[in-house]
């Protein structure tokens, strides 16, 4: 990455789903958006309003980026497809020190990748029955996969902190 005369200490990196942009988190609470192909900086985002003590971890999510801070905060930024521009959405503060890792549950409600249970599916029996019907319909070609998504834009986020605690958040 060409940074010119300015020295930056990179703490974290995340690459978008199309391998076009790399996001680099720095000790100065900045995120640099770098073109993977040209290795040139496309955008610089200062997160000092939301994060202090550096951007310790980054994680790409659908149409967004999660940034963990050295101060124990985790911020969500939205991102348009084919763009590296970030827009702040929300910030939550964890008790436990610096955020050292972020993992996202892609489909928190089921063990079948990409399949979510409807909100009214609460008992284990109802979930097994729903799963059976969904798989039967999908295998026979009589249903679309989007019919079996719950439509919510929320996802589960798990964060590890410097003190060794594991936190669960819903975004």
Task: Describe the 3D structure.
This protein is mainly beta. Helices cover 10% and strands 41% of the residues. It contains one helix and eleven strands. The chain has one helix spanning 124-140; strands spanning 10-15, 21-26, 30-35, 41-46, 55-61, 64-69, 73-79, 86-93, 99-105, 156-161, 166-170. Strands 1-2-3-4 form a four-stranded antiparallel sheet, with no helix packed on it. The chain has a four-stranded antiparallel sheet with strand order 5-6-7-8, with no helix packed on it. The chain has a three-stranded antiparallel sheet with strand order 9-10-11, with no helix packed on it. The longest helix has 17 residues, at 124-140.
User: Helix content range of the residues, please?
Assistant: under 10%
Largest sheet: 4 strands, antiparallel
Give the end-to-end Cα distance, rounded to a whole number of Å: 32 Å
Radius of gyration: 19 Å
Unreliable stretches covering 5 or more consecutive residues? 107-113, 143-151
Q: In percent, how much strand structure appears in the residues?
A: 35-45%
Element pattern in H and E? EEEEEEEEEHEE
Q: Average pLDDT across residues?
A: 77
Number of strands: 11
